[in-house]
């Protein structure tokens, strides 16, 4: 076992993927000489050279569009979009080109590209550098979306994303970049679409992904102190998401709370809740409750941001509502 | 730095002559195909929208005469000419436009998304300007994997107004990518003439990026072939170039467009510069007999009728099969 940071896990995944497959290329704004705005690609230029990892101008639409063409022509691009808020500028390439190519060209080929991007509030980055927009992407047939919660899953999912034949968006909560955890010496590649059960429990299932997983774990610890046993599921992937694991858990706990940092209204939790209300209807002993951000842009002031973000207290309150 | 005009015509003409009969045949295939598409569309056999490139065939035939199969192209909503000149199977093409399972895209793409990766045709595109950055990426991959191979981005004058053009020109110049920009300037985008939409010229825009620029009569197949030949050789060796082809849109923006916004006189002038008639006149004077020309036309027509019969005999696509092609199943990448 060794202890590594989340950001380091991403760096290792990029390095291992580039070493394994010399068709893997990395590009984006400040990824090469500077090693990434957050440092995710530090050292890769020295090791793999500027043909494998290179800086681009501030041209998000063309970066993403080029990734589609690169992927159609024999390389496996990994691009970085500095903040998830900036994917607005990449949307045509993602939604109309990358996502649809496999389907609309009759399965002639696929677009093996990866787009990494950080989301999330908590750092005072304000409305245009914090938003969680993963629901947009998970809504688009043809895109895969993963959102790791810790160093091991960041490594394993990024490796899987790079090997995957289809376009994969890896969303990284930037508040997790500094997070440290013990990991195995040999980190496994993790399958896209498979959830992990982090904690077993009997009375309620807490489902989340990314940074919110830690809020759920904290809430589960608090609930345990009050004699309530909560199961915690880390979805890891949003598209496809592991419906079977959630349903199985619901079938034993009979109560469900879905937690994410994205705005609650029309967020990923709406899909999870709706599916479970349908296929899990007979299992439910209480309302499915969602915990997400309120319907407002991410505020700047700590005083506002603190209230904006989901936390363990909100999750505990949600659990009490469904148990009531 | 300013853009150096390539002035290729003299030297190119000194080189190998253009295969005019082949260009003529390539144009004729596009023309006859689209004429049949027009009638099939009117009869309700072709669903959706179709945008015909009648009158613009010389651009496709001329540029593609200098490309290899490995070279890639990104096309537009008006992409039948690009597709056929790049060598798509006629049966696969018609089957696709008639929405058949046997189509190149299994009936899921249609006219605006027809593609054939096996001949380097990266797709028609329903999004104006989107092919630009796809071609940029393809050129980038060529440079790394297949030096000497190029990508071509076809776009209309309407795409000049898209911001993506700037991003793509800049990156292509910055990285000296083997990317040829081919603007088919037919003077119209949808129902508005380009002079009401575009405040600059592509020549001056190219100069801003120090990308070599050439303008050619896009209704003269021989000129397009000759000029693009040397430009393409330069792109293979040293980086991007822009070729603007002045051409005309004979039909409406889409089939069924009555073109009420367009001058009658404009449409009459258009017939005078028809690229196929012009090519035919040269061929008649120099090389080919009337009989040979008629035989060629008969060949092209019969290939098309055959492809239409094949397409008509095809089947509807299978829904479950389509659902499977959204992405690979979950867990694919597990070790
Ligand atoms: C991004 C986008 N905006 C608008 C349209 C609608 N549209 C389709 S073709 C077209 C005109 C394009 O003109 P041009 O590029 O000159 O090509 P032409 O039709 O003349 O071949 C427009 C506006 C579109 N398909 N995509
Ligand atoms: Mg036009």
Describe what you observe in this structure.
The complex is a heterodimer of chains A (324) and B (335). In chain A, 37% of the residues lie in helices and 20% in strands. With 324 residues, chain A is of the alpha/beta class. Chain A has two domains: 2-183, Thiamin diphosphate (ThDP)-binding fold, Pyr/PP domains (Rossmann fold), CATH 3.40.50; 196-323, Rossmann fold (3-Layer(aba) Sandwich). In chain A, helix 6 links the parallel strand 6 and strand 7. In chain A, helix 1 runs parallel beside helix 6. Chain A starts with a strand and ends with a helix. The mean pLDDT of chain A is 97. Chain B has 335 residues and is α/β, with parallel strands linked by helices. Chain B has one domain (22-311): Thiamin diphosphate (ThDP)-binding fold, Pyr/PP domains (Rossmann fold, 3-Layer(aba) Sandwich), CATH 3.40.50. In chain B, 46% of the residues lie in helices and 9% in strands. Chain B has 13 helices and seven strands. In chain B, the strands form two sheets. A five-stranded parallel sheet of chain B has the order 1-2-3-7-6, with helices on both faces. In chain B, helix 2 (20-42) crosses helix 3 (57-64) and helix 2 crosses helix 12 (290-312). The longest helix of chain B has 23 residues, at 20-42. The radius of gyration of chain B is 20 Å and the shape is globular. Residues 1-14 and 331-335 of chain B have low confidence and may be disordered. The chains are: A alpha/beta (324), B alpha/beta (335). At the A-B interface, helix 3, helix 4 and helix 6 of A face helix 6 and helix 7 of B. The structure holds thiamine diphosphate (TPP) and magnesium ion (MG). The site of magnesium ion (MG) has 6 residues of chain B, from strand 4. Residues 51, 77-78, 126-128, 156-159, 186, 188-190, 249, 253 of chain B line the site of thiamine diphosphate.
